[in-house]
Design goal:
The chain is α+β, with helices and mostly antiparallel strands. The chain contains nine helices and 20 strands. The chain starts with 6 loop residues before the first strand and ends in a 27-residue tail after the last helix. Bound molecules: flavin-adenine dinucleotide (FAD). The site of flavin-adenine dinucleotide (FAD) has 41 residues, from α1, β14, β18 and α9.
């Protein structure tokens, strides 16, 4: 392993790989990416549902998604590698007056930023999602530029492109400590040796606060378990049904192979690194799904898994230098939306490093923002 680098990226998930690619594309010298597991993408990236959407409630999240969606849609031109962005759309079902009010506000913001989002009245919903019961639903928002992608396809596309540009990737390499002297990063110690560097980029998703502690920082990113269930083949699935989010129940579902993928955010789960499957969690997902998709009576469970969201107090990522430690950047805490934001995150970190001026205003994603308490929250999270 190399003993000196211009930048060391910790974490070989979708975020670390995108950062590596865009930094190498910007000709930032010798770049090493360190991943503790035997494979890239073995962490949260391998657990993602594959949803990609720009329907958020804050400007920065909408802008990051719109940039990412452009890249996902022309990924082959960008990286030379094929990965499919299946733009089947994303639909949010709205029931209560408060949901209508909050989504109307977000819809107007999204429109003002140029997003092709539609407001659907109840009688317009079935033409896009004939498979769902509209019991209790009053309206919906729909964006047909949103859609689905396979995180591993995009990860592997970024990996191949980054390797071509000279990025070194070290697997089974755990970062054990980070040497920092007088507030400046000096080197990274791993189980395979030490690398001298003056730039470390923390892309460790749910583990980001553990890496922060290595340089004396308290990074407020908590791991929270989320579960998913997939079904076997279902007769009513067609190629163009959108991802549907039932805002009230927190259930979401999209086509997966010839069946459905079902997910739900159990907000009672306490932060921990536990990713064992809780059968009660699975049962609740199925109960909620049956209410919205009665035809699921015919369904068989094909697979189920649990993974970790990397949650910040305001559900926005941290993409930022840290005032207390020169040469340390965090790009993590996407609060369950890191796959869809990976292209933008990679571009923005590269811009932060090479010209200190990201093309999207990410001042609201600074690491220091929590010193003043929790500010504006992203409300459109599942
Ligand atoms: C159930 C579920 C569904 C989701 N659905 C979606 C979705 O539909 N759309 C979406 O956009 N997002 C979704 N997400 C969120 C998404 O998976 C994450 O936001 C994203 O994968 C974060 O990527 P990452 O690279 O930051 O983290 P990770 O993929 O976790 O990568 C971090 C890497 O750092 C490595 N690492 C940690 N510590 C060290 C160390 N000390 N030394 C070396 N390496 C280290 C880990 O091994 C890991 O590979 C979902 C998440 C879950 C759990």
């Amino acid at each position: 392993m190399r003993t000196k680098a211009d930048a060391v990226i910790i974490g070989g998930g979708i975020i670390g790989m995108a950062v590596a690619y865009y930094l190498a594309k910007a000709n930032y010298g010798k770049i090493i990416l360190l991943e503790k597991e035997v494979l890239l993408g073995a962490g949260a990236t391998s657990k993602a549902a594959g949803g990609i959407r720009a329907q958020f409630s804050t400007k920065v999240n909408i802008e990051m998604s719109m940039l990412s969606e452009k890249i996902f849609a022309r990924f082959k031109e960008e990286t030379g590698n094929t990965a499919i962005f299946d733009q089947v759309g994303y639909m949010f079902l709205l029931q209560s007056d408060s949901e209508l009010e909050s989504f109307k506000h977000s819809y107007q913001l999204q429109k003002s930023l140029g997003l092709a989002v539609q407001w659907l009245e109840k009688d317009q919903i079935s033409q896009f999602a004939p498979h769902i019961s509209l019991e209790g639903v009053k309206a919906a928002t729909l964006c047909l530029q949103d859609g689905l992608g396979d995180p591993h396809e995009f990860l592997s596309g970024y990996e191949k492109a980054a390797r071509r540009l000279g990025v070194e990737i070290e697997l089974e390499t755990s970062v054990m400590s980070i040497e920092h002297v007088e507030g400046e990063v000096r080197s990274v110690a791993t189980n395979k040796g030490t690398i001298k560097t003056d730039l470390v980029i923390n892309c460790t998703g749910p583990q980001a606060s553990l890496i922060g502690k290595m340089v004396g920082l308290d990074i407020p990113i908590e791991p929270v378990r989320r579960q998913i269930v997939t079904t076997g083949e279902l007769s009513f699935i067609t190629q163009n049904i959108p991802m549907v989010v039932d805002v009230k129940s927190g259930l979401y579902f999209h086509k997966e192979s010839k069946g459905l993928l079902l997910g739900w955010a159990d907000r009672s789960v306490e932060p921990s690194f536990d990713i064992s499957i809780d059968p009660e969690y699975t049962d609740t997902i199925l109960e909620k799904a049956l209410e919205r998709i009665p035809q699921l009576e015919e369904a068989e469970i094909a697979n189920e898994w649990a993974g970790l969201y990397e949650t910040t107090p305001d559900h926005h990522a941290i993409i930022s230098r840290h005032n207390q430690v020169q040469g340390f950047i965090t790009c993590a805490g996407f609060s369950g939306h890191g796959f869809m934001h990976a292209p933008a995150a990679g571009i923005l970190v590269a811009e932060l490093v090479t010209r200190n001026e990201p093309s999207i205003d990410i001042s609201t994603l600074s690491a220091e923002r929590f010193e003043a308490g929790v500010g504006v929250k992203e409300t459109n999270v599942i």
